[in-house]
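Before going further, learn to read the protein records used in this course. The integers have meaning only within a learned vocabulary of local backbone shapes. The record below shows the convention in full.
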Amino acid sequence: MTTTIARWTIADYHAMIETGLLVNRHVELLNGLIVEMPPEGPDHADTSTDALERLISVANGRYRVRPSKPITIPSSDSEPEPDIALVKPKAYRQSHPLPEDVYLVIEFSNSSLAKDTSEKRRTYATALIQEYWVVNLPKRELIIYRQPANGDYQSQQRLTTGSLSPLAFPDVVVDIGTLLA
């Protein structure tokens, strides 16, 4: 017997949301599949909040910081909800940001590390999102993905100390030790 998986489009997903089918379900659409997201533990919540506050404090109107809000990737029927996304500074009342609106995506990973460093990584790379950071909470390291091409990132770097700037904003310096603390 062959198992067939039903894949959903972004329109299907939005219809489910509008009808209330997904109320009180912490889910996201990833490559046509509705995927449950694990709840945030205290470490995840605290480190992502610290990063969020830092990125907001230095934005100076050049980007918006969207915490745990959807971005729409039509090419893969995906609507992930990254922990933090730096996006173009405009209103998103008619639609969520599209890949061309996204400067940087950041995920804080504990139990979702395998998904974040494989399936989500490829989804963001295929959408040509220029930069993707994964904070590996158990190992206290930052994984930086850059240079999307051919469905994956061509550059990967792992850091535990030092500082780093988003490609789009070289003057925004993020202390890695503070990000991981």
Notes: The two ends are 49 Å apart (CA to CA). The longest strand covers residues 141-149. The longest helix spans residues 42-57. The helical segments are 10-19, 42-57, 113-116, 119-126, 176-180.
